[in-house]
Amino acid sequence: MTGTRSARLGWILVAPAMLLIAIFTVLPGMIAVVGSFFDIDLTNGVRWTWTGLDNFADLAMDPAVRRSIANTVVYCALTIIPSLVIGLGLALMVQSIARGRRLVQLLLFLPFTANLVAMAVVFRWIFAFNGGFANQLLAFVGFGPLNFLGDEKYALATIAAVGVWRATAFAMILYLSGLTSIPTSVTEACASDGITGWRRLRVVTLPLLRPITVFATVMLVLQSMQVFDTVNVMTQGGPLGSTETALTMTWRLGFTYFEFGQAAALSTVLILVLILFGVWRRRSLNGENP
């Protein structure tokens, strides 16, 4: 009887959150999947015309869409790998600090808690061509100004650097939780066997942190593939589409070109890719064949 009452209380407590998730996440996702098979016209009321796979075919033939997908992949590569490496390094550094560890940990985690739109405005000023802090620093050391946000060669890498700045804090806190969960008996056994430094990191620590690495990778992929705020604030997808990503292209298709069916199709592709990636990484973590 007590167990039934506790279960009922649990469902009551999570019901508001589940309702909000259903309304603002599940329902829009289902509408996007259904809408990807229709031509949605809002000029005269709301008319849905069945088109089958035509929206997906149009996306495949659109060079701007293909470039946005390629930019998303490049952005993920430029963001995820450095974030994991730097995050692990920072976690090891924080763990080695004897005094003031909590303060350092808090300061390093602040980037992940900052408002991304506000920080994008700050970074737009930092990387501005005229008067930006980055170019002022370059001028101080004797280099000419670089058009970080207005040159195709630098724009996507600059946006990725902002992504690394934020994602590193997330990876750091995950790795730090993993490091603190390693039993002290393992550390003592390594010390008694003379396994220290880089060898202990490679042979003992990294294998024990594999679940953390998989989880952090999945979460960073989810975040990176959905990058929107920094791109929209700092470059609006420019110059010449060099920083356009899948999500910003989805927004552009829907609210600039009013191709709501194609926007729904692109978002459906993004959802499927994220689901398949999550399933693949979960199977990989469980030791199953992909």
Description:
The chain is globular. The model has no long low-confidence stretch (mean pLDDT 85). It is mainly α and 290 residues long. The chain contains 13 helices and 2 strands, in the order αββαααααααααααα. α2 crosses α13 (260-285). The longest helix has 34 residues, at 2-35.
Spatial order of strands in the largest sheet: 1-2
Strand proportion? under 5%
Largest sheet: 2 strands, antiparallel
Q: Helical segment tally?
A: 13
Please tag this protein with its features.
mainly alpha; two-stranded antiparallel ribbon; 290 residues; 13 helices; 74% helix; 2 strands; globular; single chain
Quick gist of this model?
The protein has 290 residues and is mainly alpha-helical. It contains 13 helices and 2 strands, in the order H-E-E-H-H-H-H-H-H-H-H-H-H-H-H.
Q: What secondary-structure arrangement, pairings included, does this model have?
A:
Blueprint: H1 2-35, E1 38-41, E2 47-50, H2 54-61, H3 63-96, H4 101-113, H5 116-126, H6 133-140, H7 152-180, H8 184-192, H9 197-208, H10 210-225, H11 229-234, H12 246-255, H13 260-285
Antiparallel strand pairs: 1-2
Helix pairs in contact: 1-13, 2-13, 3-4, 3-7, 3-10, 4-7, 7-10, 10-13, 12-13
